[in-house]
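User: Could you check the structure of this?
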Amino acid sequence: MTIPSPFQVRPAEPTDADLTFIVSTYDATLPFLASIGNHEQWGSIPFSQRGDFSTETLTQLHHSEENRLTDTSHSSGLRIFIVEREYHDEPLDAESSQHLRIEADGRRYLPVGFAQTRENWVPSYVKSQSHLPIPDIEREEFVYLEVIVTDSRVGGLRRGAGAALMNGIREYGRSRGKRAFWVDSWGGSERRLVRYYENQGFKAVGDWSHERINKSPWLGTLMYIDI
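Assistant: Sure, the predicted structure tokens are below.
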């Protein structure tokens, strides 16, 4: 018997609640990454303190909502999704409890992660790697996972949330007539994140590194899965 998933994936909205959740989840990820030896992945400066990051994130939320409502492709078809699970009084810290969403019927949902995708798009730092088998944005139909983050503050309640997000994105891609799902993974820390994506069915097609000012090189692996 198939056990139903405890997660549901919904479109993010340009609201204070979703904006606060996304930015605070980015911030909370940094000490978690440092604790597992991945401090080089995203650095140590909180995202909320990086210039206009919050304002830019709100703009992206508006673009995502516009694309959803009008079936357009502003900002290369940018879409942002939030994964959440019904909340049953599990222990939460004060900050996480502020993100609970209450439905009209009284059910409570806890956001535990988010993802950002674009269509027929490849980031410039990947495009610059001429040795990689980069998908053709003019001829191929694909979804690109720009970022995916689960909320380290909720402990075990996020277990499986990343897989649920990726399954939701694959379903979204099918509905859009896409044929492949691409992602670039952090390749450092003994390739633990690469192995995670491989366990989700992704195939690695090439590695690269690029220099960063006053930092060690960023190690990357390009991966894809058929939709």
